[in-house]
Amino acid sequence: MDIQINYDYRKDELEKLPLHELAQFVLAREDKPFNTEVSVSFVTDEAIAELNEKYRKKEGPTDVLSFECDGVDDDLSAMTLAEDPVYELGDVVIAPDVAGRQTREFGTTFEEEISLLLVHGLLHLCGYDHIEDDEAEVMEKREAEILEAWSKRTV
Predict the structure, then answer these.
(1) How far apart are CA 42 and CA 8, in angstroms?
(2) 68-112: per-residue pLDDT in tens?
(3) Is residue 80 a contact partner of residue 27, using CB atoms and an 8 Å limit?
(4) Cβ(3)–Cβ(23) under 8 Å?
């Protein structure tokens, strides 16, 4: 799996976290093929606010946005060979300043909050959503399962 992480913002803090490994863990748990490609970017509040306005028509910064590339409903069962084309899952954009503020609100650490946002964003790319209450329940349960398994992995 090709996980491209762009640390243009708050690089010193973020590149110390095992985000590449967490992204691979999530995608493996979601049975994505080995040739899956995803990008993760960390941006300022201003940058994510612009994206939030442009794509969601909502004002102000949000914590995480996901932008799907190849369809989540594509048949990936035959993608097992090195010569198979890259499966571009999509892009996750995270605002670390929003995450920092949320740590105070939710009583989490910065790493916990960033990890949750990464898992959340990746699950959106895998087809999960939380618009309806029943969808939110499924997505939140899956987030919790993945984060629990991640915390219990052998390092």
Answers:
(1) 7
(2) 886 544 454 544 555 567 778 999 999 999 999 999 999 999 999
(3) no
(4) yes
The CA distance from 116 to 97, in Å, is 14
Separation of alpha carbons 91 and 114, rounded Å: 15
For the chain, the helix, strand and coil percentages under 3-state DSSP, each to the nearest 5: 45, 15, 35
- The confidence score (pLDDT) of residue 86 equals 77
The label of the residue with tokens 């967490």 reads 22
3-class SS of residue 7: coil
Is residue 119 predicted with pLDDT exceeding 70? Answer: yes
Assigned token pair, 57: 């028509």
Phi/psi of residue 26, each to 5°?
-65, -50
- Find out whether 49 and 61 touch, Cβ atoms under 8 Å: yes
- Residue corresponding to tokens 């985000």: 19
- Quick check: 62 and 75 in contact, CB under 8 A? no
pLDDT of residue 118: 97
pTM: 0.88
Distance CA 67, CA 90 (A): 5
Distance from chain centroid for Cα 9: 16
